[in-house]
Amino acid sequence: MGSDKVVDLQGSYLDGAIQPVSCGEFMIPREPKWDKAKVRSVFFGVDADLILQCPISPVQEDVIQWDHHSSGSYSTRSAYDWIQRSRNVERDISPLWKTLQKMNIRPKIKIFIWMLCFNALPIGEKMATALIGHGLCPHCGIAGESLMHACRDCPAVKEIFYYCDLSRKLYASNVLDCRQWLELCLRHLDPDLFMFICVLLWNMWNRRNTLVHKGILIPVRATVEYVQMLISDCQSSWELPGVGTSCNRSERWCWPSEGVFKVNVDGAFFADSGKASIGVVARDHFGLMIDGQASILHGTFTAELTEVMALLEGLKMAALNGWSQVQFECDSIGVLNRLVSQDEDRSIAGLFLTEAKQLLHNNPGFRILHVNRKANRVAHTLAHWILDCNEPFYFAFDVPSCIESDVLDDAIFGS
């Protein structure tokens, strides 16, 4: 279903026409576990192995799912997308669209970026071809107003980029259009900075329109401060009890406050082999390791589901240890966006996120923050290291050699 993987059975099985067999009949009553004996008594060996590897969420009743969207929920848009796929219509698979979809910004800003990429804005040169206006830039009054001029090359725009200390990062190479430029920015800038640029472009367009229609030039500082306020407001609406409204942009691991434990989680997934693994590490305010685990996930997984399972294992570790004040750190913004989303999510990942929400609700001292991937390197290394092992690895004070130097470095030089 959507990004979830479906088990393709190798054998042929006949179901009862009057009383069809349900999936729940192969589970242990009132427990999120397969009845292994029953599964193996009905299905061939290879099919039974595949079924038993499927994870079961313990927190939600059965629901009807729409098979053609990752959320499992039907919408007109997902139906249209499915029809286009079935007709083999060529799809635009630029990573820009997926990144834009996951951004925690206002929908109208996302629409603006889409219009910018497809040259669908009423820019001066385009208006001049319709005999409306002279086509010159309203800011400098010298050059023709193309989209690249309005968004990057105009001296008035360069002044804003210089104020934000972005000049060297946005003028590294020559590109033909705004879409190529944004795709280049996406490849070379971190996600938070790229989001800032998208919101800034939208507000600079508003600044341009205010000048054209009202004759008012908004100061550079006010333009930038409004962008910062917008992003802050979007993050404050990204709120669920226990989920942080901000992120740690530092590239270094940061010490938690005294009396608070910090748990870093990460997942590793390789599409070619289908292997998935997780790494979870817990440290105190001195940076000393107090608990940790690394394990291979057996079953049918996706990259996002792997990240969800890592977060869930971290929450369970803290709850089982009885810790009351815990700060969790995860480098997957997509997982945290889904965790706080109010939209119905019937996917497999959504079921486990529901379990995570319950743990957060039951432990008000738990808090989750998004962090830079470099600040999450210990959990990242651990998740990749375990792929070469056959058994899960649990540890407390005996730190695995693969992360020993990084743990020591964080404890000494953490911020």
Automatic annotation (TrEMBL):
Domain Reverse transcriptase zinc-binding: 74-160
Record-level Gene Ontology MF annotations: nucleic acid binding; RNA-DNA hybrid ribonuclease activity
RNase H type-1 domain ranges (all copies): 264-385
One Pfam family it belongs to: RVT_3
PANTHER family referenced in this protein's UniProt entry, alphabetically: OS05G0353850 PROTEIN, RNASE H TYPE-1 DOMAIN-CONTAINING PROTEIN
Protein name: RNase H type-1 domain-containing protein
Source organism of the structure: Hibiscus trionum (Flower of an hour)
